[in-house]
Amino acid sequence: MHDAAMPVLALTTGEPAGIGPELVVMLAAGGTLDIPVDASGDAGEDASVGARIVAVGDPRLLAERADLLGLSLTIIELAPGESLPPPRRGQLPVWPVALRRPSRPGVLEAANADYVLETLDVAVRACLAGHAAGMVTAPLHKGAILEAGHAGFTGHTEYLRDACGVDEVVMVLATDHALHGDRPDWQGSSALRVALATTHLPLREVSDAITGPRLERLLHILHADLSRWFGVADPRIAVCGLNPHAGEEGHLGHEDIEVISPVLDRLRATGMRLDGPLPADTLFTPRHLAGVDAVLAMYHDQGLPVLKYAGFGRAANITLGLPLVRTSVDHGTALDLAGHGSADPGSLRVAVSLAAEMAARGGGN
Ligand SMILES: NC(=O)c1ccc[n+]([C@@H]2O[C@H](COP(=O)([O-])OP(=O)(O)OC[C@H]3O[C@@H](n4cnc5c(N)ncnc54)[C@H](O)[C@@H]3O)[C@@H](O)[C@H]2O)c1
Ligand SMILES: N[C@H](C(=O)O)[C@H](O)COP(=O)(O)O
């Protein structure tokens, strides 16, 4: 693809004390990524992730982390809207946001919560103004943002929902579609996609949060956006029950019969292809996943352990329902690894590639 035709992606660098900044500089420097480079050092078509990347963060922080890892990196500071140089290995365009306090790897600093949120605001504004075709987010630390006084903060997903002024979004994690190519029993060669009916909620609040109207809205978003961003025509979605064995005919909980089933019946009558509610323990087996384009799990740790077992480090997180493309990594800030250069950049690469594909499909700039 010609450079100018590649979508611009704003890459927020996440919690400064975590592994986000170093993964971004690794990606830019090509340090540990298995990407072929041509003799000139230019990122050729095969070598690139199919996008022009602009980091959003503190240029000095990124330079420091590159130095720490012994990576050679030239940082080019630009303002959103300014034209980008052609992508070149070892160069990183940056839309600058200033750290509030110096940051050390592995050490959280509450004052930098506002820095992290500002990087998201800059990326959202750039996407909505057409300066970027999408945003990719390195991990932030939810606890650090809450500790800093941003009560109610639960993650990028909900923050971006509010920043974009939409009522409902759907968190989906998807494995890289190349991952299962050698496992024909998985789902052909397609990705495993797991959407969540509830996200960052204490377990005791989950049942009350799963209401018929909400499930219906989530399924409409999932259905429409699988087609819009992933090119899946007439998607088939498998829906997990909430309770063990999908409630065992009401003996192990009533939500499956009283809340989930009626929604699925109603939507099936409109033509949607929906399986379930199915017992979640056996849904994630090859027979039930065959031909399924996405699974809707009822809560975070019903769906994500399966996804992360199948593809941790080779998967990405996507927010559906936004007026922009947003992907993220499948892992957190890994404070234990920060500054060591040993963190796996695989998921960031998948997140960037997926955002580029989505932007190309969804007609972003
Ligand atoms: N996209 C995001 O912003 C995102 C995603 C998940 C978690 N988080 C946040 O991150 C913080 C820490 O969460 P956690 O400890 O539950 O999960 P974590 O993913 O940070 O760490 C869990 C384990 O995985 C390892 N790990 C994580 N990323 C790795 C990588 N790239 N390469 C190698 N090993 C890796 C860590 O060393 C640790 O052992 C929390 O605040 C959480 O909310 C953010
Ligand atoms: N639930 C996600 C995961 O486990 O990977 C993660 O916490 C990220 O959430 P946000 O994208 O909403 O920050």
TrEMBL record:
Keywords (A to Z) from UniProt: Cobalt, Cytoplasm, Magnesium, Metal-binding, NAD, NADP, Oxidoreductase, Pyridoxine biosynthesis, Zinc
GO CC terms: cytoplasm
Main location: cytoplasm
HAMAP family: PdxA (MF_00536)
Top EC class, one word: oxidoreductase
UniProt pathway annotation: Cofactor biosynthesis; pyridoxine 5'-phosphate biosynthesis; pyridoxine 5'-phosphate from D-erythrose 4-phosphate: step 4/5
Co-factor remark: Binds 1 divalent metal cation per subunit. Can use ions such as Zn(2+), Mg(2+) or Co(2+).
Keyword Metal-binding among UniProt keywords: yes
Function text: Catalyzes the NAD(P)-dependent oxidation of 4-(phosphooxy)-L-threonine (HTP) into 2-amino-3-oxo-4-(phosphooxy)butyric acid which spontaneously decarboxylates to form 3-amino-2-oxopropyl phosphate (AHAP).
InterPro entries linked to this entry: PdxA (IPR037510), PdxA_fam (IPR005255)
Protein's UniProt name: 4-hydroxythreonine-4-phosphate dehydrogenase
UniProt-recorded Gene Ontology molecular function terms: 4-hydroxythreonine-4-phosphate dehydrogenase activity; cobalt ion binding; magnesium ion binding; NAD binding; zinc ion binding
Ligand binding (a divalent metal cation): H200, H245, H300
Subcellular location: Cytoplasm
Residues binding substrate, per UniProt: H156, T157, K308, N317, R326
Pfam families for the chain: PdxA (PF04166)
Reactions that this protein is recorded to catalyse: 4-(phosphooxy)-L-threonine + NAD(+) = 3-amino-2-oxopropyl phosphate + CO2 + NADH
GO biological processes: pyridoxal phosphate biosynthetic process; pyridoxine biosynthetic process
Family: Belongs to the PdxA family.
Domain of life of the organism encoding this protein: Bacteria
Cofactors, names only: Zn(2+); Mg(2+); Co(2+)
Enzyme Commission (EC) number: 1.1.1.262
Subunit structure: Homodimer.
Note: The active site is located at the dimer interface.
Keyword Nucleotide-binding applies: no
